[in-house]
């Protein structure tokens, strides 16, 4: 009859049947099994191990991504999204979130109908469907409006704050008149009689170059009040046309100093009240005055009369 060896026999534990030998034997067996398992894992490439572990996540995501891509390419996804958005906005509007009032602050010259057209909203429209950013861009396309700010004040009000451009002058160009601001933006060519005190700028490019000239004139009110128009000559320099027909020719460079010089001459000699037709300030430190024909004739007559008096005095 075969004989069965007890686990504690030396056949199973070559080192002997002692607690220390059994522990050593179990430790070696555990280490061998771990090494065998590691060798089996190393036999499989790492990318296959990664895919094996991630397959349960990657496969569903790939399916969902494919469905989304197909829906986007076919347009059905966008249509479904639009339908959901429309249904949502309809529910909010029926719940009271709809435009009932538009409040506008800062509007003086801008036409109200233009503002409403730029906002593109009607009474009863879903207020959550209103796009403030797109409406702001449309408002700033209106010439009078420099900037705009729009707020949705739930549940039913749009609040609009406008900053309008400031008119600087009337621009005469190609026999037409238009209102312009300091940046040269054309504001309007209607109702110009509402701005009777604005100076007139004449010539190509006059609005953009006129800002510095008008600033220089503003620093000398006695000259500014007499100016009817400023003509840009050759896109380089200005001629001032004063009330009464007097023309003042300013230099190309440092015309501000010439304006101050003219104001000083008016204060000391009342030059603008004399019978002259032109004052030339184009040459620094030099003043050229052109008298009117009447003044020249009067001067010639005075000289002739003086000569007669001298001749009569010699005879006597």
TrEMBL record:
Q: Does the keyword Cell inner membrane apply?
A: yes
Q: Name one GO biological process term.
A: FtsZ-dependent cytokinesis
Instruction: Show the Gene3D superfamilies listed in the entry.
Output: Cell division protein FtsQ/DivIB, membrane protein fhac
Q: What is its main location?
A: membrane
Q: Protease: is it a keyword of this entry?
A: no
Q: Under the cellular component aspect of Gene Ontology, which terms does the record hold?
A: cell division site; plasma membrane
Keywords, ordered alphabetically = Cell cycle, Cell division, Cell inner membrane, Cell membrane, Membrane, Transmembrane, Transmembrane helix
| Function comment | Essential cell division protein.
Q: What is this protein called?
A: Cell division protein FtsQ
Q: Which organism is it from?
A: Nitrospirillum viridazoti CBAmc
């Amino acid at each position: 009859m075969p004989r069965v060896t007890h686990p504690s026999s030396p056949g199973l534990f070559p080192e002997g049947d002692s607690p220390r030998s059994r522990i050593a034997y179990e430790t070696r067996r555990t280490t061998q099994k771990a090494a065998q398992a590691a060798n089996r894992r190393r036999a499989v490439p790492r990318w296959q191990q990664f895919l094996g572990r991630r397959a349960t996540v990657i496969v569903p995501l790939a399916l969902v991504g494919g469905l989304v891509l197909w829906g986007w390419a076919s347009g059905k996804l966008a249509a479904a999204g639009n339908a959901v958005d429309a249904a949502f906005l309809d529910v909010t509007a029926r719940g009271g979130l709809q435009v009932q009032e538009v409040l506008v602050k800062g509007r003086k010259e801008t036409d109200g109908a233009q503002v409403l057209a730029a906002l593109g909203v009607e009474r009863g429209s879903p207020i959550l469907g209103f796009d403030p950013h797109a409406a702001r861009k449309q408002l700033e396309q209106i010439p009078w409006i420099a900037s705009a700010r729009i707020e949705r004040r739930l549940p039913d009000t749009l609040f609009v704050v406008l900053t309008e451009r400031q008119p600087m002058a009337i621009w005469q160009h190609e026999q037409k008149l238009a209102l312009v601001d300091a940046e040269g933006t054309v504001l309007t060519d209607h109702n110009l009689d509402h701005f009777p005190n604005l100076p007139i700028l004449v010539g190509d490019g006059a609005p953009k170059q006129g800002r510095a000239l008008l600033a220089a004139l503003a620093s000398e009110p006695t000259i500014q009040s007499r100016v009817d128009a400023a003509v840009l000559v050759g896109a380089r320099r200005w001629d001032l046309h004063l009330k009464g027909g007097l023309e003042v020719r300013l230099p190309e460079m440092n015309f501000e100093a010439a304006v101050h010089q003219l104001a000083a001459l008016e204060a000391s000699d009342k030059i603008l009240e004399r019978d002259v037709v032109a004052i030339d300030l184009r040459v620094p430190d030099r003043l050229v005055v052109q008298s009117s024909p009447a003044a020249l004739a009067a001067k010639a007559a005075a000289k002739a009369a003086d000569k007669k008096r001298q001749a009569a005095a010699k005879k006597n």
